[in-house]
Design a protein that fits this description.
4 helices, elongated, single chain, mainly alpha
Length: 140
């Protein structure tokens, strides 16, 4: 099939695949935010270590010791640092989500991605107009 807008598929299937794709894209955004959380938390811990050293150097030993003992390197969730949260998310949610998206595309659309968008492009472009070309794997 050279036309990714998949004229062979019914509208309901295309719409459902579009929603599944959109939901996966939302999960991908959430994953990016989770990685941001991981990196920012790590940065905060390193900055905290600098603050502890500064407090200690300034003679505030008790406060520095308390911060060092109770906050530096602390788990952000029960028994977990952020890298473990990210790894668990990837292994138990994100990878499963991606596998189901792939399965749906393989079973229903020959593996094609963004079929809904390809169909939208076909419906919205002006055939033959500059900058409205069909482009790769779409038919004119």
């Amino acid at each position: 099939m050279t036309d990714r807008s998949r004229p062979d598929l019914d509208d309901a299937t295309i719409a459902a695949l579009g929603k599944l794709s959109e939901s996966l894209e939302t999960v991908e955004q959430a994953r990016g935010l989770l990685y941001g959380f991981h990196q920012l938390t790590g940065k905060a811990d390193l900055l905290l270590q600098d603050a502890v050293a500064g407090l200690r150097d300034a003679g505030h030993t008790e406060l520095a010791d308390d911060l060092d003992r109770d906050l530096v390197g602390r788990n952000v969730l029960a028994d977990r640092w952020t890298f473990q949260v990210v790894e668990d998310y990837d292994a138990n949610y994100w990878s499963t989500y991606r596998a189901f998206d792939q399965r749906a595309r393989d079973e229903l659309a020959g593996g094609d991605r963004h079929v809904l968008e390809a169909r939208m492009k076909q419906g919205e472009r002006t055939s033959g107009h500059p900058r409205h070309e069909a482009g790769p794997v779409l038919d004119d």
